[in-house]
Specification:
By secondary structure, the protein is an alpha+beta fold. Helices cover about 30% and strands about 25% of the residues. The protein has helices at about 1-15, 60-70; strands spanning about 20-25, 45-50, 80-85. Helix 2 (about 60-70) links the parallel strand 2 and strand 3 (about 80-85).
Length: about 80
């Protein structure tokens, strides 16, 4: 899956996480808005543990991830984040 790899690569480069799991959950949303064809690569869950998140509020952590993903964000319909230091 190229989007999962792209997300992983950007998050690894930005945060050097101890733990990183990126799951494509698009199949759960086939036929819904943002994934009408059920092709995948539209809905993702990210679980990440990184020292770079220490001291950041929940909102700041989410903003940091969105910044790191940059131009990928408009291609993602849904992104759930489980972030911790």
């Amino acid at each position: 899956m190229k989007m999962v790899k792209a997300i992983e690569d950007r998050l690894k480069a930005a945060f050097s996480p101890r733990e990183l799991v990126v799951i494509d959950e698009s199949a759960k949303h086939a036929g819904h808005a943002g994934n009408p064809g059920g092709d995948g690569e539209t809905h993702f869950h990210v679980q990440m543990r990184a020292d770079a998140m220490a001291g950041l509020s929940r909102v700041a952590r989410h903003r940091a991830v969105h910044t790191a993903l940059g131009d990928l964000v408009p291609q993602i319909h849904a992104l759930s984040l489980d972030l911790d230091a």
